[in-house]
Each structure stands twice: as structure tokens, then as C-alpha cells.
Specification:
65% of the residues lie in helices and 0% in strands. The chain is an all-alpha fold. It has one domain.
Length: 215
């Protein structure tokens, strides 16, 4: 596959997936009473509001262009002020809802991408290798599944650490860069471990859509 084409076919779903992820954080916080993200212009699906030049653009391009077996990226974090959460929602509950919204949005995108892919493959009899849209859908699915799984890992600054008991979370946050660097190194070495849950989810969705679409 031509390098420029591969960069485009990977970068487009990457930017879209990260933008939806951050929008989900902003939207859930807003619905809970915190308008911080909205005031900072983050309550939008416009990628320009969420793109981090290095994490969203340059790093993914470098990894794809060098045929790295490890693919990684991030967007600008959404600002959330937990003090603004409405009555009836504790700070802990608000943290978990807001944090969980990002990975859940990625799972929804993966679900929709897989549905469109199998519809095109079965009902429209499209050949994936000859259809750029289907190739884009494959990457859209894979990236969103990877983002969901990765962000649920309970290590700061990932979303999963908000689900830890406060006593553990506060201690880990004090050394979050150390934990995060170690996590990246481990995933770089054991990146194949991510394929286990990814394959499991992919198989489930394939069976579901084949049953629905009659493939």
C-alpha cells in the first residue's frame, strides 16, 4: 500500500475517532452541569477543536510511515471542573460518567463502522480490497476498539483511572507520568495483547451483523 494513501486511510479515522471521544467527554460533563468544556470551545465535533498537532497528527504519521507495529495517538484533553456537577451527582459519580463517555463513544463508533462494513460486503457485494471506503471502515473499527480498550486501562491519565477508589487514584495521579511511560513501554513490547480483546469483540460483531443482515 502506498505510504501516502496508508497515512490518509489511517489518519482520517484516527482524527474522527479522537474527536468523537473528546466530544463525548465534553457533552457528558455539560449534561452533568459543568460548562467548562463548552466555554473552552470543546463541545463540538469539529476536529480542529480537539486536535493535538503532535499526538493526533505527527506521531501517527511517523508510526504509519515507518511501518511501526505500534500505533498510538491522542487529542487535547477536555477540561472538566467536577465542582460544577449538579446536585444529586457526587464528584466520584460525575468523574466516572464523564470519563466513561469517551471509551463508550468509541465502542458505539466501532459498532456502526462494522455494521456499514458488513452491509457493503453482503448486501452490496463489495470487495474490501478494491473499495477505499471499506478499508477506511476497517481502520475506523480497529482504531475505535483499540481506543476503548486502551482508555479503560486504570492508569492515569487514561479514563480508566477514574474508576479506581479515590485513595488509590490520588496516589497514582501523583506519579502519573511514570505510570503512563511504563504503560506505553509495556504496550509497545506486548502490543499483541491488545489483539485478544479486539479479536473477541470483532468476532461478536461479525456474528451479530451476519445474523441481522442475513450473510
Amino acid at each position: 500500500m502506498d505510504t501516502v494513501y496508508k497515512v490518509i486511510i489511517v489518519l482520517v479515522p484516527m482524527i474522527l475517532s479522537l474527536s468523537v471521544h473528546e466530544f463525548a467527554h465534553a457533552y457528558s460533563a455539560y449534561k452533568l452541569g459543568d460548562d467548562t468544556a463548552k466555554r473552552h470551545g470543546r463541545l463540538t465535533l469539529n476536529p480542529m477543536a480537539h486536535v493535538d498537532i503532535f499526538g493526533t497528527i505527527l506521531l501517527p504519521i511517523i508510526l504509519v510511515a515507518t511501518n511501526s507495529g505500534f500505533f498510538f495517538g491522542w487529542a487535547k484533553p477536555v477540561p472538566v471542573n467536577r465542582i460544577n456537577f449538579r446536585r444529586g451527582v457526587t464528584m466520584k459519580q460525575g468523574d466516572m460518567i464523564t470519563a466513561g463517555a469517551g471509551p463508550v463513544s468509541n465502542l458505539i463508533m466501532a459498532f456502526l463502522a462494522s455494521g456499514i462494513y458488513f452491509f457493503m460486503a453482503i448486501q452490496m457485494n463489495q470487495n474490501p480490497s478494491q473499495n477505499p471506503v471499506m478499508q477506511l471502515l476497517v481502520y475506523l473499527f480497529q482504531i475505535n476498539i483499540a481506543l476503548a480498550i486502551f482508555n479503560f486501562i486504570p492508569v492515569p491519565p487514561l479514563d480508566g483511572h477514574y474508576f479506581l477508589p479515590d485513595s488509590i487514584k490520588e496516589k497514582m495521579v501523583q506519579h502519573q507520568m511514570v505510570f503512563f511511560v511504563l504503560l506505553i513501554l509495556l504496550i509497545n513490547v506486548f502490543s499483541s495483547a491488545l489483539f485478544v480483546p479486539m479479536s473477541f469483540i470483532s468476532d461478536l460483531l461479525q456474528k451479530f451483523w451476519l445474523m441481522i443482515l442475513g450473510g
